[in-house]
What we know:
Blueprint: H1 16-20, H2 24-43, E1 53-55, E2 64-67, E3 72-75, H3 77-82, H4 84-102, H5 115-124, E4 145-148, E5 153-156, H6 158-165, E6 180-181, E7 185-186, E8 189-190
Parallel strand pairs: 1-3
Antiparallel strand pairs: 2-3, 4-5, 4-6, 7-8
Helix pairs in contact: 2-4, 4-5
Amino acid sequence: MTTPAFPVPALPTPAPDALEALDAAALEACLHQRVEAAWRLCQEVHPALPRPQVWLDLRGKSAGQAHFGRGGLRFNAQLYAENRQAFLVEVVPHEMAHWLVWHLDEGPRLRPHGREWQTVMRQLFGLEPSTTHRFDVARVSPAPYRYACGCQEHFFSVRRHRRAVRGQAYRCRQCAQTLVYQATEVSGKSQ
């Protein structure tokens, strides 16, 4: 099978200083412009590709998500605000590559980060395919409950902590010991 010829990557790298000076509204407009530019680039190889809608409503540790049921791309506003340049350079093409691959003839049957997606990332966007981001997620997904095993500490989210309190046992992947809750004092109250 031959690889189709893709155009030279056409998404310029945004200037970090200009991005840092943007307020929330301008930052959102910049995201929409970047998605539009990525979509137009994808249309060069797949002219029937529908334009995705764009939402900044994703929460938690995920930076972006191609949401085919809703017909568009979801992005994490807080991670975007904290990682402006990297977000535009890496996350937007990552999600647009998912959008393009999904709309190919065999798209729904293909692996999300499979060969086709990797090809789009390399040959269309000129980026090394990476399945995860490296953004600091401490503020967007706090895990305030401390657990311990024989080799390290683990921090649980509220949801995971509640499951543990209800009897769900969790084991360390390194030492295989059951994780034990370590009550801590916060503002004079026990967590």
